[in-house]
Amino acid sequence: MKSNGLHSIYLFFLTLPSLFAQTVTTTAGSINFNLSSAWASPTQVANGITIQDGHIINVPTGTVFYSGKIDFVGTGKLQLIGTGKWMPGPSITSLKSCKEILSYYPMSPSGQYTIDPDGAGSSPSTNCYCDMTTDGGGWTLVLNYLHRGGTNPSPLSRTTNLPLLGSTVLGIDEQGSSTWGHTAPSYLNSFSFTELRFYGVTSGHNRIIHFKTSHLNTINYFKTGVGSMTGINTSFTALISHTAFLPNSASNYFLDQGTIAMTNFPFWLNGTYHWGIQGHGSRWEVDDYPGNSSNHTHHQIWIR
User: Fold this and answer.
1) Is 282 exposed, middle or buried (0-12, 13-18, 19+ CB in 10 A)?
2) Contacting residues for 283 by C-beta, under 8 A, at least 6 apart
3) Report field, pTM of the whole predicted structure over 0.90
């Protein structure tokens, strides 16, 4: 095993008693550290790892492998290639976002994590759902409404925690659960992000809303509840499944909606295509205009 000057660090960690939960390599032979398939429990890499007999974990040149304590079994080894490095990594629960988790632990799969959005600040840690695959991954879920058609439940503005991800099957009713709700502006300010991602589907048609944006008007509107999404129609990137008319067709924007900035028609084309989550008190709409709550809908917003 190459040391790149870290041999003494390795020895220090390897002579410690086993203090951490551990994950083990699952693929015999040689594999890169940043692949989920390299590990039996990739979410545990921060806590400590075991490299099994006959397994080689490669750290490619120009990359850094962060982990907890390393145990080697038999001929198991960590191979640093070129300028590749190993460093002791932080605990996942000390990290501020899904993006930060992925930056330290790129093998991390999509799923539920615990993060601390403002680090040493006053906000407590919270559970969150991370999408670690879409458009490079690192997305934190901040709005999730899986709504059953024919019902009109109230949205939930969350001020101390985030909605999680449950089902994605249209027609499931998730109202009142831990997967229902959106992040209030006051709480969203605890998070550092530069991108938003919108996703929406409905039983009313086959079009899909799926785009990302760094539009400052929109980010500021969601963080403060003041302003609007004006300009989103020319400041977005359509993602691979996007087939909707919105946001390109948007020409109408509600202003100053406070805690319902994300839900109450933030962007639409009058009488045609809308994004609404109990908009005007009763309308659930995804790139359409049924004018009621009759369709099954699923709305999501993510940050990165």
Assistant:
1) exposed
2) 274, 276, 290, 291, 292, 293
3) yes
Q: Tell me if 200 sits within 8 A of 286, measured CB to CB.
A: yes
Place of tokens 């409905």: 202
Cβ distance 130 to 286 under 8 Å?
no
- Taking the mean position of all CA atoms in its chain, how far away is CA 124? 18
Instruction: Place 21 in a pLDDT band, splitting at 50, 70 and 90.
Output: low
Q: Which pLDDT belongs to residue 278?
A: 98
Q: 108 — phi, psi (to 5°)?
A: -65, 130
- How does pLDDT run across 115-128, given as a tens digit for each residue? 999 887 777 899 99
Cα–Cα distances in angstroms (integers) from residue 76 to residues 24, 46, 47, 171, in the given order: 11, 19, 19, 49
Rg (CA), the chain: 22
Q: What is the pLDDT of residues 263-289, one digit of tens each?
A: 999 999 999 999 999 999 999 999 999
* Cβ–Cβ under 8 Å, residues 243 and 217: no
| Structure-token pair, residue 246 | 């919105």
- Residue 281: phi, psi to the nearest 5? 90, -10
- The DSSP call for residue 63 is -
